[in-house]
Amino acid sequence: MARTKVVAEPRWSPGGTWLGWLESIDGRSDLVVAPTDGSGPPVVVTAEHELGRVGAYRGGAWCWLDDDHLGVVTAAGAIANLGVEGGPGRLIGHDGQSAAPAAWSGGLLFASERDDALDVVELMWPAPDPERSGVGIPTGRRWSDADFAWDPAVTPDGRWVAWHEWDLAAMSWTSSRIMVADRGAGTSAVVAGGAGIAVGQPRFAPDGRHLAYVSDESGYWNVVVAHANGDAPRPLLAEPHDHAEPSWGPGQRSFAWSPDGDAIALCRNEAGFAQLVVVSLDGEVRQIAKGWHHGIDWGRQGIVAVRSGAKTPPQITVWTPTGDARRVVARGAPAGLELGAREPRPVTWTRDGMTVPGLLYPPDGADDEGAGAPPLLVDVHGGPTGQATVTWDGWLRYFTSRGWAVLRPNPRGSTGYGRSFAQGLQGTWGSADVEDVIAGIRAAGDQGWCDPDRVAIAGGSSGGLTALMVGAQAPDLVRAVVSAYGVTDLFDLAATTHRFESRYLDELVGVLPGDEARFREQSPVTHADRLRAPLLVLQGDADKVVPPRQAELLVDAVRAAGGVVEFHVYDGEGHGWSKIETVQDELERTQAFLEQWVLQP
After folding, report:
1. 544 to 377, 489, 495, 579: CA distances (angstroms)
2. Which of 33, 89, 381, 549 has the fewest Cβ atoms within 10 Å of its own Cβ atom?
């Protein structure tokens, strides 16, 4: 049931000869390339390299330089020029600690990250020459002076450059900007976004006439189309559905231009479910396929994306633009894991007059005669600017196959339901979200979704904070709590987390000094004496987002108060698990813990 392999970032080569994608397994990521005509098998081109990533979150590990060469980021933060046949390649740039190549047009534009900045940089080479190498940036240019900038794009003629940027204390999904620069004139301007508006994913049409991006100015992240210089913007499809997810890292591709620049393929979020649609520039909508489609690219050979659903493990899938034919190029999990999987049921409940949505997954055998009410595992998503979505998840499948119903709530602060809902957690993280989840657990018992006497709650990262606070605030509702790399002490987090989220608490909790009372009251460690349900705490010792001290502070406080805690630290793991052995251990350890404290009479 473990997520044995991840497939991501499919891209057609400029001439359409090749399709490339990433495959990650057991902590290592490789770039795989296959001929589009099927004349040969897929080839790993990074066998002599280890790919790197920008920041703590995945995205933007590579791009095409031309039809036979690729720019990839090594684990050391260098950018290498590799041929499609693989081999050692040539170093073409090194700047900062890590990088993310994005676009080539006479120079390579990429996001470059250091401890004190994340910039858009242009590495000027006359051509992607495999015989030429060098360290540093001989004639590099930095395009942004914002606190964060990534996802650069460039028109085919090289004149216009666009990128996504924002400044602290904002996050990319709260207040950010689309910038467009005239390379010849050396000028740049804000063309979209600003205070109270979140934008992202600038992308020029293949013919260079138009610029598209996502913006939530209407209340939802909709795709907007403008002239190449940003003038005359208009929504491509104005609707109460998001066309993007929060930008936790560079490289999100929730939409793609058609080869002729006359239409856009996008993934529409429909309250956690999703579908791929094609929208012409005059607004005509054509439905292609149900399911989540990530990393979308559109070439002459078709629309390629990573498709996933409740019953569909991630697959590199190619669709014809009409949606009448598809083929699967690569799978992210062995065949058979999906057997018995079922779609969730959308559910809602109310608290203080607000409707709170969620997804309820039935256990295997739920329809069998005499099955009875199942135990319930409440799984809280991270972020908290995340969303429970109907995508494949081996963790979830592991527990539903073992008789658990799983409720995945989307408390206020979740994305996917419009900007106002996503911003509804400001100042109240650890309070409003907790009350929303508690109301969901009560609804589950009242509505007969589960056995109310056999309920556990789990969460990772920010979901860990919510789960722990539910355990403290409603000890009568849950018999066990599982926290994976969860936030426990907001004071300590504000002082120790990585730069990307260094001011996130300004919006979620408050500003220090001044709001100490909120930081204290909304921290699980403050309520350690009220956490009477047994705890399972899991932590990676290399986590820079939620450092190990967060787990240690909670464990010490709960034990000092006489509580029951099982604590396990995984060597070499960061904010999330990458090793197969870790994933497998988490599943087995969690199941044993829940059997002991929830399923036993």
Report:
1. 28, 15, 12, 17
2. 549
The two tokens of residue 246 are 């929060």
Residue 160 has φ and ψ, to the nearest 5°, of -105, 135
Question: From residue 17, how far is each of 38, 72, 127, 155, 341 by CA, in Å?
Answer: 10, 18, 19, 21, 36
Report the distance separating Cα 187 and Cα 164, nearest Å.
Answer: 16
**How far is the C-alpha of 59 from the C-alpha of 56, rounded, in Å?**
10
**Nearest residue to 424 via CA among 510, 507, 514, 491:** 507
Fold of 345-599: Rossmann fold (3.40.50)
Rounded to 5°, the CA angle 577-583-589 comes to: 120
For each successive 10 residues of the chain (601 residues), what is the average pLDDT?
A: 72 95 85 91 83 54 86 74 78 59 69 77 56 44 86 91 95 97 90 97 96 98 98 97 94 96 98 98 95 97 96 94 90 80 96 96 83 94 97 94 97 97 95 98 97 98 98 97 98 94 96 96 98 97 95 98 98 91 96 96 78
As to burial, measured by CB atoms within 10 angstroms (0-12 exposed, 13-18 middle, 19+ buried), residue 448 is: exposed
- Indicate the length of the chain as a whole number: 601
- Positive/negative CA dihedral, 304, 250, 214, 385: positive
Q: What is the largest CA-CA distance in the chain?
A: 74
Provide the pLDDT for residue 1.
Answer: 38
What are the structure tokens assigned to 105, written together?
């047009």
- The dihedral sign for the CA sequence 258, 261, 263, 267: positive
Q: Would you state the structure tokens that stand for residue 343, as one six-digit string?
A: 């779609």
Q: Which residues of 125-184 form beta strands (DSSP E)?
A: 141-142, 148-154, 160-166, 177-182
What is residue 125's predicted lDDT score, i.e. its pLDDT? 52
Question: Long-range contacts: 261-266, Cβ < 8 Å, 24+?
Answer: 261/205, 261/206, 261/207, 261/209, 261/210, 263/321, 264/212, 264/223, 264/225, 264/236, 265/296, 265/298, 265/303, 265/321, 266/223, 266/236, 266/237, 266/296
| Spatial separation of the C-alpha atoms in residues 122 and 104, rounded to whole Å | 9
Rounded CA-CA distance 266/204 in Å is 15
Tokens at 89, concatenated: 């390649």
CA distance 11 to 297: 6
Give the CA distances from residue 181 to residues 153, 163, 320, 432, in Å, rounded to whole numbers and listed in that order. 10, 9, 35, 42
pLDDT at position 324? 86
**Single-letter amino acid code for the residue at 531:** L
